[in-house]
Each structure stands twice: as structure tokens, then as C-alpha cells.
Amino acid sequence: MSDYEDAVAGLAALGERPGGARAALEAVLMVIDQPASTEELAAGLGLGTAVVDELLAELQREYDGYTVKAPGTDADGSPADAGASTAPRGFELRNVAGGWRIYSRAEFADVVGKFVLDGQTARLTQAALETMAVIAYRQPVSRARVSAIRGVNVDSVVRTLVQRGLVEEAGTDPESGSILYRSTSYFLERMGIASLEELPPLSPHLPGLEGIEEFFDAERM
Amino acid sequence: MSDYEDAVAGLAALGERPGGARAALEAVLMVIDQPASTEELAAGLGLGTAVVDELLAELQREYDGYTVKAPGTDADGSPADAGASTAPRGFELRNVAGGWRIYSRAEFADVVGKFVLDGQTARLTQAALETMAVIAYRQPVSRARVSAIRGVNVDSVVRTLVQRGLVEEAGTDPESGSILYRSTSYFLERMGIASLEELPPLSPHLPGLEGIEEFFDAERM
Amino acid sequence: MTEPLTLAGDLPDAGSPSSEDSPTARKGGFEVRLANFTGPFDLLLGLIAKHKLDVTELALATVTDEFIKYIRRLQELGESWALDEASEFLVIAATLLDLKAARLLPAGEVEDEEDVALLEARDLLFARLLQYKAFKQLAAHLGETLESEANRFPRQVALEPHFAALLPELIWRHSPEQFAAVAAKALEPKDTTPPEVGVDHLHGAPVSIKEQAEILGYRLQHGRPLSFRALVADAESTLVVVVRFLALLEMFRDRVIAFEQPAPLSELTVRWTGRPEGWSSDALNDEYDDVPAVPAEASTAPSEDSE
Fold it and tell me: Whole-prediction pTM value?
């Protein structure tokens, strides 16, 4: 079967779902963290790149409110004309550095910025600090592993640490395929040390730590 | 200036932007990485909670393709009817664990799963599910109590649930001094419900056994 | 220490989706396969479902034999059970037996305290079973919901760089030593030791089955058949009598002795049937060593602190 036939079959398969291939592409774009190239998207969706390119362009125009200039929505926020597809959405689809990703619309940068700052403190939470400590001493380490050690889900805390530049991705675990994390040079800077070797050894604080790894690996379900 | 006047002013200010308050809300929803409550969103946007609730409901309906049943989109993905707001989007807005958040639509799980490998959690065992159910419906509850209901020792299962962030400690029983457990908001998130009230009621499963709880309380421990 | 019970019979799992399409009771041998019963109630519900019975008193009496057969099978397979797990199964087996016995007897008036106790035990078991069934149904619902929810992926993307840049400069006041202390605390193994059944309050002199079996073996191997009465004549306490009786059962299982009893309640005679060599009390099942009431230390450090 040719690539072309493959792509046609893929399109037909997605067409049966609500929203079709366009919604499938949207679903992917909504949740990916890293920008994805047309090729990656096409491969994941089982579609041809030409079709994906067309769908991307279509979504992009649609999010921008077509070519029509958006009429100001009523100030009372009435739902009457909410469905009008001529108003731009609050997000946009951008092709950045060879990949596609959905971003919040630039026009709302001040609103979004205020919202982001509202919930933020200049200090790390205790949860973030402990997670940082586990990563620093166990790196490279996956989130699942840190979760197991800390006893709670750490996904959003790790994201905060990445955002803060204290932690970065360090490839994937060859066995599980999950992303590994390590501390950054900015972390060393903030700690006032030159290298990880200067971190105080844990042994005085924690005798008999050796068994812990096996313990947690065995314990997970 | 009153709160009401503040909110009206906020709405008017956002109304001038392309897409208005609705798009501003969408823009904020794009950057949150955990469920945000109506109150948080309202405060961030400078709007009243009633308005935000209405906007959220509106967006939710719109993403689902209004109330109109979505017509199957053309398999060729032609852009002709792409703007029709009757087709559901690839994502949905949901009120989960007391907050709002954007999710990819369940119908595209297979496609999205190819892009989002990380963060997927293993299935719970039957023993873990049963223990989780007892804790969810009887919280706060001691391990001894859960054991009495399940007929087996649940210590290691509870530990696993705590480790996975689905269950947490909730103080100690004033009488027996044993540790009590309750479900977490992460559990609500995983269940896709806004609060514990959304769990199906226990009573239909327990026909004519209204007095049983007191009975067991007296009997055990 | 992951699951309380990992071995289970070839039985439908009541309440789970698979129970719908499971075949009716299989004739012939009772097969033990890897399935997953999560406790005695689970097993009981499984058995009831297998017979397509409703959860009733009658159903309980009907499945008694199978329940007990199942436990026996597990023991034969040498599955090591934690005491509390095994005891839950045994308590329920005992109640079931009572129930069955009560059904076999002619229906009569509730007369003495034993009858009342039996009725209470039956009601309690019945109520507990129904309660467990309710939670099992809810567990199935939780499982389905969690699974279908796993099909939705939340948008949780990293903050766009221009917003991340807005964040205030991080305040970091931890010295490397303080940070190490945080790490040590975070990496510390959580308290995971399962609570154990305390035996400190038991003051009876520890008596080892192995020890008593050795004594009995010595006497029987080197003499004529002896009556049980004679074998326990020198026992200093009831506990020793009981333990010697248990030891005899163990030895009987090892096929080194035989019992003879001409009529019910008449003299019980014990005869050595094993070869003179090739048997030692070490061959006895280890399971009793874990029973707190008969501590393992008893064989090595007899009655040191028992005075």
C-alpha cells in the first residue's frame, strides 16, 4: 500500500470521530508541551503531511477569527453571539522553530501575566524544595521515581522547577522511556557551589540509605 | 468603587480586545497547569465570578459543538465547513477537582497517547480499587476499619495508594489514636469529578442496610 | 508484601465485568489457577456467582464445602499466609460450617445461648458480605471511571518563556548543608513496617511443636504403640497437651505415624509407621514457627523469660 493510500485510510478513520481529522489534530496540539513538526504530527495522526499542513493552516486562520476583523464582543458578555466564528479565540497556533504549538494570544499577555504572577511566590514551596533535593541527589531521575520517593505526585512541582531553571531534562530512561531530570548550572549558582561534588554527602544524615532504591522499585504497583 | 463596579469596568476593558472577555478567559486557560477555580480565574481577569461562570459554561458548550449533534465531518477534511461551530473541538473544558482545565477529547486518546507518553499511570489492582472505594466513601477512615470491610489486611495497599498520591493521612482518631485516611484532590482529578459529591451514592448498593454502619462501628475496634 | 492474596481458584470474579461471560460451574476437579481474589469475601462472592445464586443464607450454606476445599487447596500448594489473612479465611470458614450444620439439623426453637450466638454470627457474616459486595461494585465503577478518564489528557504545558520571564527572582536562602538536610529527610524511608501482632502480653511458656514432636518421635520409634493418654501423661500443662496433639497431626501428615481408635471416644492408640531413620522433626512444616503463640525462639531459647 502506498503512502498516499495510507494517508487516505488514516483520514477516513479519523473522519468517523466527532470533529474528524481537524479535531484529532487539535486534540494533539492542545496537550503537547514541545512544539511538533508537521512530519511528527502527520506520522502520529496517520495522515499525509500535505493534509496536515492544510489542516494546520485552517486551524490557524480559524483561531485568528478568519480573515474577517473581529467585531468587539458585547461588554456584558452575553452568550448571544458567542458562537460566531468570526471572533478570534484566546489562543493561537504558531509555528516556532520548526514546530507547531498552541500559545495564549499575544493580545492578552498582560491579563495572562497578571494571572501567572498572582499565584506565584518568590520562594520555593516546601514541596518544591524537597523535590529539588531528591532530584539533586538522585539525578538523573524520572518523575515517577521522585513521586515514589516523596510519596506524592510531583508532576506540577517538577514543571515549576523546570520553569524556574533549577532543573532540566536529561534524556530518557532506556528501559521505561520516561524523561529523566537533572539539576542545572543555575541551581549550582544559587547554591553557591562550583559542582555537584560539593553538595554535602548524605551519609551523615542518612545511614543505611543503600537499600532504599530496591525498596521503592519493589513497592510500586 | 464597589466590587460590582470593578467587575463591570473589567468587562468593559476586556470587551475592547479582539474576542473580548471570552477570549481573555481562554488565554488564561491556555497557561494553567492545574485546575483553576472560578474565583481564581475571576480574580485574575478582574471579572465577577458570575460572569466567569457564564463564560466558562459558554466555552464548554461551544467546545462540545453546542447542543447540536455534531454531523460527521467530511473525511477529506476539506476546509469548506471548518468554521461550522456545530462540530465539537478536539478538546474540552471540564470542572475537575474544584477547578477548570482543558483536556483533550477522550475520543482521540489513541492519537494523543502517541505524543504524551509520560505521566501515564499504571492501572490499579483490584485490591487497590476496593481499598480506594472504601476510603473514598468512608473517609476519614482508619486502616483497621477498611480491613474490617474488606476482610483482609490493607496496610500495604493503603501505603501504595498514599505513595501514588490518591490517598493521604487525615489526622488520628481521637478514641483509638489510629491514623485516619482520606482521598486527595489528585484522586478527584483522576476521576474527572469536581467534588466527592459527584461519586455515585452508596445506598443503592446497600439495600435495606441503613443501620449497618453503626452496627460495624460498635462491632469493630 | 504487595497483595494479601495472589492465588485464587478458577472462579468468576463477582461484580467484575468478566463475571458476565464466565461459564457455569465446572464439573469435576476443582482447579486452582492464578486469578486474583482479594480476600475471603471476594472468594465467597465468587463462589456464589459461580453457582448463579443470590447472596442469601442458603447460598452461604451451599458454597461452604467449596470455600473450605479452596482454603485446603491453598494450604496444600504451600502458599504462605500471613496470620491475619489466614485467620480471616478461617473465621469465615468456621461460620459457614456452623451455618451449614444448622441447616442440616431439624428446624427448631432457638433455645440456648449457642443458638443465639450462631444466629448472630450468621447475621454478621451476611451483613459484612453484603457490605463488601456494595464496595466491590463501587470499586468496579471507580476502575471504569479511572480508566475512561485516562483517555483524556490535561493541557499542562510549560509556561511560555515571556511569562516565565515575568516571575520574580527566586529567593534561595538554603546553604548546602541545609539543603542536604532537606534531601536526607526527603529520602528517608517512610515508615513502612507493617504493624505486627504484639505477643508480649502472652505469658504462657513457649512450647515448640518441633520439640514435642521430637519427644513423641523418640518414644514411638523406640517402643510399642502408645495411647494418646500415655503420650501426654507427663505433660506439665494443657498447652503441652495441645502442642503434642498438634505435633501428632503434623507427624500423621508426614505419614510416620498411624492412629487407631476402635470406637468414637475410645482409647486412641498411636503407632509408628515410618522408617526408623530418615525422619526428623526438622521435616515438619515450618508454618508453625511463624505463629506468635508458639514463638520460634522457643526451640532455641526455651522458657528463658517465662518464669
Answer: 0.67
